[in-house]
């Protein structure tokens, strides 16, 4: 998609001359002993950038670095002028009437769109549903980058994708993650990207093929590299430590379900940046439901009607949450892979709605058994609501649950059965929930067709 290799010569024959003299500029020259400027026609002025050549091509990243005013933007502008048909992240716009998820990777699948968004540190489901205008400046930059990557990959343009002020306004951890993920995308999709950045700390994760260090006054140092696959720097400092159920409070709002209903928790592991550093991820292992049809299929009915054996031999991954700043960097896969043996049971299972679009559990070593069908109790509930003229995904669903006892009874029964199967205390817990909370929980249950995964400890 990045096209065949091409040498671009950047010839900065134009010069940056000072504006016409004024009273103030004359006073500044006099006060600081500066000579008057020469006219450009007499060889005066200042070189923005001395002539240089860069090689563009599929799978390549070229990075211009240097302080403000050193010529980074000028270099990108000259490359863009010679390579029409590319995409400039700074000029990417979003349609005003669509969500972020609709504006990214529109020509591909949902999983591709979510992959681009996660790679650009936009890995939270609520963000995907927002309009561009509702986002912060940092989120807008990441959304533009994701949209530009999707457009560029689809167009298969030989011109490069250009990004000035790359990750300039982002938290450094998020910026490093975006740089790392961009390197992966460029390599896998054979893109060509040219970035300008004043942050040299991004280079180890960006792994550019060529770095042009601009020194000012037109001078530069060009360095050609041979990038080799390596983990994001943050992975080298990570520690996985035992945690407690209370540790999940930090991550609850980051999970797409936004609920702390974890069931009967057995073990918790926390991923931290260094010893005692920030928590970047969590995995919660709990006791699973008494009966699952796909579990019975995968284990030849080993646990059917045997809760005692199930309690000894099986745990379920109840939650896996990675901080949005570092999603897409492989940390979730690493956290699951390294803790599966530490769960302490022969089997570990998982029901993951994100399994439809993200194969993280397969990459962690779990076997994908299949997607769960809608349980009969939920099917009957949907039929009952249809007869009552109620749509669970309509805007007025919460109002319907609040005002109509028949609707609330149908919804409460589904939620009660779910509580009883996963966390216990179904009757009491439903009685304590408000109608809006019941409506939200019900909507999440019937809208989710999770994928069932199973891992079995190898015999030693």
What would you say about this model in short?
With 460 residues, the chain is an alpha/beta fold. It has three domains: 227 residues, Rossmann fold, CATH 3.40.50; 138 residues, Gcn5-related N-acetyltransferase (GNAT) (Aminopeptidase, 3-Layer(aba) Sandwich), CATH 3.40.630.30; 71 residues, no CATH class.
Question: Could you please describe the fold and organization of this structure?
Answer:
The protein is α/β, with parallel strands linked by helices and 460 residues long. It folds into three domains: 6-232, Rossmann fold, CATH 3.40.50; 234-371, Gcn5-related N-acetyltransferase (GNAT) (Aminopeptidase); 376-446, no CATH class. Helices cover 35% and strands 20% of the residues. It contains 17 helices and 17 strands. It has helices at residues 23-32, 72-82, 100-103, 110-119, 125-128, 137-155, 172-189, 203-206, 293-298, 307-313, 331-339, 360-363, 376-387, 397-403, 405-422, 426-432, 435-446, and strands spanning 6-10, 15-16, 46-47, 52-56, 60-65, 87-88, 161-163, 192-197, 210-216, 219-224, 238-243, 265-273, 279-286, 314-322, 347-352, 367-371, 451-456. The protein has a seven-stranded mixed sheet with strand order 11-12-13-14-15-17-16. It has a six-stranded mixed sheet with strand order 6-7-8-5-9-10, with helices on both faces. It has a two-stranded antiparallel sheet with strand order 1-4. Helix 11 (331-339) links the parallel strand 14 and strand 15. It is elongated, with a radius of gyration of 28 Å.
């Amino acid at each position: 998609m990045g096209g065949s290799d091409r040498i671009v010569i950047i010839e900065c024959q134009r010069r940056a001359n000072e504006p016409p003299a004024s009273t103030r500029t004359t006073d500044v020259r006099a006060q600081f002993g500066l000579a008057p400027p020469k006219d450009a026609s007499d060889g005066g002025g200042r070189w923005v950038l001395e002539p240089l050549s860069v090689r563009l091509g599929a799978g390549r990243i070229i990075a211009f670095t240097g302080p403000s005013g050193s010529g980074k933007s000028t270099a990108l502008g000259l490359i863009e002028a010679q390579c029409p048909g590319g995409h400039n992240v700074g000029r990417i716009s979003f349609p005003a009437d669509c969500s972020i998820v609709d504006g990214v990777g529109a020509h591909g699948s949902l999983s591709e769109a979510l992959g681009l968004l996660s790679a650009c540190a936009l890995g939270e489901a609520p963000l995907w549903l927002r309009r561009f205008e509702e986002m912060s400046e940092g989120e807008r930059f990441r959304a533009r980058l994701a949209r530009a990557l999707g457009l560029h990959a689809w167009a298969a343009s030989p011109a490069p994708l250009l990004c000035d002020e790359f990750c300039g306004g982002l938290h450094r951890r998020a910026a490093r993650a975006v740089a790392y993920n961009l390197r992966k995308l460029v390599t896998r999709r054979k893109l060509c990207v040219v970035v300008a950045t004043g942050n040299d700390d991004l280079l180890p994760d960006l792994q550019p093929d060529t770095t042009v260090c601009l020194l000012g006054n037109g001078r530069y140092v060009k360095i050609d590299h041979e990038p080799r696959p390596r983990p994001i720097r943050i992975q080298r400092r990570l520690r996985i430590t035992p945690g407690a159920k209370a540790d999940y409070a930090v991550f609850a709002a980051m999970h797409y379900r936004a609920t702390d209903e974890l069931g009967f928790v057995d073990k918790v592991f926390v991923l931290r940046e260094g010893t005692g550093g920030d928590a970047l991820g969590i995995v919660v292992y709990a006791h699973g439901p008494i009966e699952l049809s796909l579990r019975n299929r995968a284990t030849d009915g080993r646990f059917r009607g045997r809760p005692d054996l199930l309690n000894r031999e099986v745990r379920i991954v109840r939650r896996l949450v990675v901080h949005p700043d570092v999603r897409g960097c492989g940390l979730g896969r690493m956290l699951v892979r390294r803790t599966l043996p530490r769960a302490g049971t022969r089997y570990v299972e998982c029901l993951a709605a994100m399994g439809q679009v993200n194969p993280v559990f397969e990459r962690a070593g779990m076997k994908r058994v299949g997607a769960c069908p809608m349980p009969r109790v939920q099917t009957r509930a949907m039929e009952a609501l249809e007869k009552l003229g109620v749509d669970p995904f309509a805007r007025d669903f919460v109002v319907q649950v609040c005002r109509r006892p028949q609707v609330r009874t149908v919804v409460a029964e589904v939620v009660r059965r779910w509580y009883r199967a996963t966390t216990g205390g179904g009757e009491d817990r439903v009685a304590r929930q408000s109608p809006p909370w019941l409506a939200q929980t019900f909507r999440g249950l019937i809208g989710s067709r999770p994928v069932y995964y199973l891992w079995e400890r190898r015999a030693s």
